[in-house]
Design brief:
Layout lengths: L1 E7 L4 H15 L2 E5 L3 E3 L10 E9 L4 H14 L17 E7 L4 E2 L4 E2 L8 H10 L12 H10 L1 E4 L7 H12 L10 H9 L3 E7 L5 E12 L2 E11 L8 H15 L4 E3 L7 H9 L15 H9 L1
Parallel strand pairs: 11-12
Antiparallel strand pairs: 1-4, 1-5, 2-4, 3-4, 6-7, 8-9, 9-10, 10-11
Helix pairs in contact: 1-2, 3-4
């Protein structure tokens, strides 16, 4: 089964949805279920035009690549000439996104399935939960109903350089100070540099009220023994603990690790962190019989510089 998300905020929006569904039925396959269209505010850009969004389930024999070409042609035929690119969004007469195709995982320069941003968007999850609540995300291992419940309780987003600001820096430093008593506060320049690192992915968890409640870092490494992911600096604000936020952060990091092709995910944790270690094991992490050795390099680097 193929799942598509449809949105429009120009012209007669309900007619646009109906026409797009008709063209999908003619060119792609039978539309077997359609969610109730809902009105939503624009996300990612400002506009006075509200969207109407829905989701459809389509029975098709076409490949995802063929469906992508067909949906793009439908958009052009309906009058959409400008596509969103590099995070720049526009008003649109119709937008058709491929969300998922059965349990396929596709990762090409032109198409990723399941859609990598679908779990962040209520305007996608809510209609999809109406028509496919028990569809299980192959990378998260959770149903759409479960993913919608998570999204309603928090919002997890990657740190981007454009987001770096003094207020965000203060919030991040407040969290990290709870992780270690030896923590040296980051500067804005350091935070911005980290946001630019191509294989370091920092994720921020916000409450529905917009409060930064947690953070975690995913480091991706290409090594001789395979692609590996390392989980670091997982912390949830003390005032927000007990709400499942740490589990949500780690679930999100595991999804991102799989999406980036990591074969294993690794983390280290002190034995004294009993509650954290219990959580890691409940998520499937195994305690290995290895010793972790640590060397501080700052003093050695300073000594070499002095020479």
């Amino acid at each position: 089964m193929l799942y598509l998300s449809l949105g429009t905020n120009l012209g007669n929006r309900h007619e646009n949805i109906d026409r797009a569904c008709a063209l999908i039925g003619e060119r792609i396959g039978t539309v077997v279920r359609k969610a109730t269209p809902v009105e939503t505010a624009p996300v990612g850009f400002e506009s006075d035009n509200l969207f109407v969004n829905t989701a459809v389930a389509v029975d098709t024999t076409m490949t995802p690549a063929e469906v992508l070409r067909a949906t793009q042609q439908i958009e052009r035929d309906m009058g959409r000439t400008v596509k969103s690119k590099d995070g720049v969004y526009h008003d649109r007469i119709i937008d058709i996104d491929l969300l998922a195709s059965d349990n396929r995982v596709v990762c090409t320069p032109s198409l990723q399935l399941p859609h990598p941003e679908m779990t962040d968007r209520l305007f996608v999850l809510e209609p999809l939960a109406e028509i496919a609540p028990e569809w299980c995300h192959p990378l998260y291992g959770k149903t759409i109903r479960q993913l919608l419940d998570v999204r309603r309780r928090c919002h997890i987003m990657p740190l981007k350089a454009d987001d770096c600001s003094t207020p965000l820096l203060d919030s991040v430093n407040t969290l990290l100070a709870q992780l270690s008593s030896n923590f040296a506060p980051l500067t804005l320049a350091q935070l911005t540099t980290l946001a630019h690192e191509p294989r370091t992915h920092i994720y921020l968890l916000y409450t529905p009220q917009g409060t930064l409640a947690g953070t975690a870092t995913l480091c991706l490494c290409h090594q001789l023994t395979g692609n590996k992911a390392w989980v670091e600096d997982v912390v949830v604000d003390a005032a927000q603990r007990g709400k499942g936020y740490a589990r949500m952060l780690l679930d999100h990091l595991m999804f991102q690790a799989r999406r980036h092709g990591a074969a294993t995910a690794n983390l280290t944790s002190r034995p004294q962190r009993v509650a954290a270690n219990r959580l890691y094991q409940s998520l499937g992490f195994e305690l290995r019989e290895t010793n972790v050795y640590k060397m501080g390099l700052a003093d050695e680097a300073a000594a070499l510089t002095a020479l």
